[in-house]
Design goal:
binds phosphoenolpyruvate; 239 residues; TIM Barrel
Length: 239
């Protein structure tokens, strides 16, 4: 699975052009490819992707029912607009809006309830990695998911070391393998899809995908260029 997270990028015309280019990316049926544009562009892009195999996703949503929540979108809205997935708990949202795995549980439940799948992000900071706490930190980010009585069969986890996001740095293959095994272990699911994220690019993709236990990638910066995104899909398929 290769998912592009466009974050707060693209003016409307750029988003349309990028989605049109991504819609033409060829990939094997067994590779799920998706994009998560800014919420305002979900609707026009849903029309562009109609009939294509590219999945559409929201970058975030909340678990509340319809109601008085200024500025928010809920899981039903994302689903209604044509989304197949929603990214939840990205480190940028954890840092800026104080989201925690516990506070995200209603959103995880609501996303699963709609039939979409959550792409639930976890990852340690540089200081946590350097002090030897990376595995513990990520395990703590995963554990709340187990306390909510959710059927986690459809959940996708994205392991994204915070220090690797947008920096050009990447975790070592050994660290990725260790972390992905830990995520599956804590989840109690050997079959869970665990993506890697953090500066994945056409240049780094082969190395990342050679790590055992990597189910694909959550791609930020490189997903804003259709050729680079396609090259990452191709790297996955030749692995
Ligand atoms: C991300 O933030 O999800 C991400 C992986 O970003 P980048 O690829 O730009 O590091």
């Amino acid at each position: 699975m290769i998912i592009g997270n466009w974050k707060m990028n693209t003016a409307r015309a750029d988003a349309v052009a990028l989605a049109e280019a991504v819609a033409n990316i060829e990939h094997q049926a067994s590779t799920r490819v998706g994009i998560c544009p800014p919420a305002l562009w979900i609707d026009p892009i849903a029309h562009i992707l109609e009939g294509s195999s590219i999945l559409l996703g929201a970058q975030d949503c909340i678990g509340d029912q319809f109601g008085a929540q200024t500025g928010c979108i809920n899981a039903d809205m994302a689903h209604d607009a044509g989304c197949a997935m929603a990214i939840l708990g990205h480190s940028e949202r954890r840092a800026r809006f104080g989201e925690t795995s516990a506070s995200l549980l209603p959103a995880v439940a609501a996303v699963l309830e709609t039939g979409m799948f959550p792409v639930f992000c976890v990852g340690e900071t540089q200081e946590e990695r350097e002090s030897g706490r990376a595995l513990d930190v990520v395990a703590k980010q995963i554990r709340p998911l187990l306390t909510a009585g959710l059927d986690l069969g459809g959940i996708v986890i994205a392991y994204e070391p915070v220090w690797a996001i947008g920096t050009g740095l990447s975790a070592t293959r050994a660290d990725i393998e260790e972390m992905h095994a830990t995520v599956r272990d804590v989840l109690g699911r050997t079959d869970a899809l665990v993506l890697y994220g953090g500066s994945v690019s056409p240049e780094s993709a082969d190395e990342v995908f050679s790590a055992e236990g990597v189910s694909g990638a959550l791609v930020g910066g490189a997903s804003l260029n259709a050729d680079k995104f396609a090259a990452i899909v191709a790297a996955w398929e030749r692995k």
